Amino acid sequence: MYTLGDIPRKTASQYPDACAIVFEGQRWTYRELNERVNRLANALAALGFAKGSRAAVLAENTSKYLETYFAAAKLGMSVTPLNFRLSEEEIVHIVRDSESSCFLIGDSQVERAMKIRERLPGIRTWIGFDSESKNLLGYEKMIASASGQEPTPAVAVDENDLAVLMYTGGTTGLPKGVMMSHRNLMTAVLSAVIATGFTRDDATCFVLPLFHVSFWPAFGVLMAGGKVVINRKPDLNGILRLIQDEKCTHINAVPTVYAWMLQLADVDGHDLSSLRSITYAGSPMPIEILKQCIKKFGPILSQGYGMTEALGVSTLIDRDHFLEGDKSRLLASAGKPVFCAEVDVFDEHDQPVKTGQIGEIVVKGKHVMMGYWKNPELTQQTLRGGWYHSGDMGYKDTEGYIFLVDRKADMIVTGGENVYPKEVEDVLYEHPAVAMAAVVSAPDPKWGERVQAVAVLKPGAAVSESELIDFCKTKLGGYKCPKAVAFWEALPTSTIGKILRKDVKKKFWEGHARSVN
User: Fold this and answer.
1) Which residue in 3, 123, 272, 449 is a FRET match for 160, CA 20 to 30 A apart?
2) Which CATH topology does 234-407 take?
3) What is the per-residue pLDDT across 376-386, written as a single tens digit (0 to 9) for each?
């Protein structure tokens, strides 16, 4: 098995003059990309970094982010990508916990990073992607004087060495480090290339953050010899313009990005005919939004289901999006396992459940993480029996399609009945006035918990609380229907645009003696 650093090395030989990366008007061929990666690797080596060293990165999307992943891999270093929306306390915790000794910073994050500089004595080298100062080495100046040849002597990097230490949040506690080996990464990327059919003729419009496990399309397209068009941050009309101008064939985003695109962007004002594949992940897409996307873009949508601990995609549904007929039921499916993955549904005793029965989705394969950093107990619990226990609830049908029901932690227990928020949200999205919706538990003096809905309305639309509740009653059992509906101007979302139910839920449980995590 090859390592992450082999991607630019091998493709520079195979496709030297083909365009590899486009970023803010600049273009780099595969030969140029590999030379820049080598310059960075050699510059880091000259600063004393070697196999086993760790680098933290705090930046918006940039071509230099990808160069850092590759250069670190060639040296046997690992990268800890940081979510720039984290608080300073969380960033300090992650950098300390990861034992990083090098910190690379994007221009928009320099001020924040300098505020916490004194709290990070383990960092001995600070590098600015876009700027330099007395406390910050300039990236371009640093690599300009370094060799563009492969690092010598070559570092013996094993496929089981740590490549990326990515921190992921949970419903409680501090972020935990997910250890990703080169074998984990390359298995996941190869499987994604097979599933999506990426070739050297493809160009992906890269929208989601490079600090997230959604980095797979960038690695996958580069492995295939195609072109990666990087967006610094999501700008809806800017994304459409890049798809048009760069003739992008692929885009990967989360459902809320596509919902915003349909509502807020000038979709019809751009030529998107080059697109052959639209993938979405991060959370299940509401059926009504999915139908709108199919009508607008055609039957070119694919849903991937996965998680950070399994490096992205474990199941995929591709070309099975039908608006009518018996197959239309697959609009609610997460698809079937991809080539590298085994996926099953277990009960509370870790035994497979019957077809159609709800249980916890479990995943096994060489793409599954090495474990949690410095947390063997949690690793053993989560990977028990050789299966990654996702915490997601779902079922498998007679044809092997996986259907997600909801997060185990998000399930609402009201009056002794289990209610899965996604089922209620899907109904709310069917109402013509609703743009976005979230369903959570809220305290209730009679039932302990109640089904609480929060809705964001479309511009100019109007609907009352009672009307929405009555609408749900026409499609759902009474105990599943919201007991109350709040109307907000916006819902909290993660950096990739995923609705943060836990933040919504927190608003309703503040000040109560018992809280639901």
Assistant:
1) 123
2) Rossmann fold (3.40.50)
3) 999 999 999 99
